[in-house]
Automatic annotation (TrEMBL):
<dbReference type="InterPro" id="IPR002083">
    <property type="entry name" value="MATH/TRAF_dom"/>
</dbReference>
<dbReference type="InterPro" id="IPR007942">
    <property type="entry name" value="PLipase-like"/>
</dbReference>
<feature type="domain" description="MATH">
    <location>
        <begin position="1"/>
        <end position="97"/>
    </location>
</feature>
<feature type="coiled-coil region">
    <location>
        <begin position="219"/>
        <end position="253"/>
    </location>
</feature>
<protein>
    <recommendedName>
        <fullName>MATH domain-containing protein</fullName>
    </recommendedName>
</protein>
<dbReference type="Pfam" id="PF05278">
    <property type="entry name" value="PEARLI-4"/>
</dbReference>
<dbReference type="InterPro" id="IPR008974">
    <property type="entry name" value="TRAF-like"/>
</dbReference>
<dbReference type="InterPro" id="IPR050804">
    <property type="entry name" value="MCC"/>
</dbReference>
<keyword id="KW-0175">Coiled coil</keyword>
<dbReference type="Pfam" id="PF22486">
    <property type="entry name" value="MATH_2"/>
</dbReference>
């Protein structure tokens, strides 16, 4: 099954021709199925002349979790005209496939998937995703992307985001918090209704600041200690300079006294 990326996704990848090869009717195959295959894409004009060929993708596994492989950016659309591919505004895509291994399973494995509210998720994720939709039934009502692989990617991003926010606030780094906000923005733009997650991120951010406050206080204390030590050193330096001057003055007095003695000896020799 040859598939082009849907229009809304195509717009997101800066006018690139995207080509993917998918397993047709994967739901009809037994649980645990796998196919290993090599394949390549060839673009032809209406006359059947080969004008462009994408290098062969070698020995990729297709299974219930990953039903398709291909290129998000196979060829810039502007190149179609340059290379004369659009003969009479038509293009032919030929796929050359070599199946090198076929595995038919019969039991549930850790990589088998099932449908939960329109999303293909791993069996190990099914209960969690189901509870998520029970708690937030309208969460994905505005999510319009139909490509199942893309839908699975988005639901995995959502699960990863929730997992991050479930960690103790003090263990979440500033980078992780920034990534969480970025992922939330991507999910929201895709159509997910996640006001509750935004609230969660704000709560985690606040708790993180509070939990890290003692560290900030300790830093201030250390800085104050350093300042006090510097002040003490400066005081000692002043004392040292004063003492040094006193020693110098005494030395001068000693020399003056010696000179005076020498003069007296010369005037009153014995």
């Amino acid at each position: 099954l040859l598939m082009f990326i849907p229009k809304e996704i195509l717009m997101m990848i800066t006018c690139q021709l995207s080509l993917y090869l998918y397993v047709a009717n994967p739901e009809s195959l037994r649980l645990g199925w796998k196919r290993r295959a090599s394949f390549s894409f060839v673009l032809l004009n209406e006359s059947g002349k080969e004008l462009f060929k994408k290098p062969e993708i070698l020995f990729n596994f297709f299974n219930a979790e990953v039903t398709g492989w291909g290129y998000t950016k196979a060829l810039p659309l502007k190149e179609l005209k340059k290379k004369g591919l659009l003969e009479k505004k038509k293009i032919i895509v030929k796929v050359e496939v070599k199946v090198v291994e076929v595995i038919d399973g019969g039991h549930v494995t850790g990589k088998d998937t099932l449908d939960v509210s329109g999303f293909q998720v791993l069996y190990s994720q099914a209960i969690r995703v189901s509870k998520l939709f029970v708690k937030h039934p309208d969460m994905a009502v505005n999510f319009r992307l139909t490509n199942q692989l893309v839908r699975t990617t988005y639901i995995n991003i959502l699960l990863g985001l929730i997992e991050t926010l479930e960690k103790p606030p003090h263990s979440i780094s500033e980078t992780e918090l920034g990534n969480a906000r970025s992922e939330l923005n991507d999910l929201t733009q895709a159509g997910f209704k996640l006001e509750w997650l935004k609230t969660k991120i704000d709560e985690v951010s606040l708790k993180r600041k509070v939990s890290n406050a003692p560290n900030d206080t300790r830093v201030q204390e250390l800085e104050e200690d350093i300042k006090n030590i510097k002040d003490e050193l400066n005081k000692e330096k002043v004392k040292f300079l004063s003492l040094e001057q006193t020693v110098s003055d005494l030395r001068d007095e000693v020399w003056d006294f010696k000179d005076e003695l020498n003069k007296k000896r010369k005037l009153n020799p014995q």
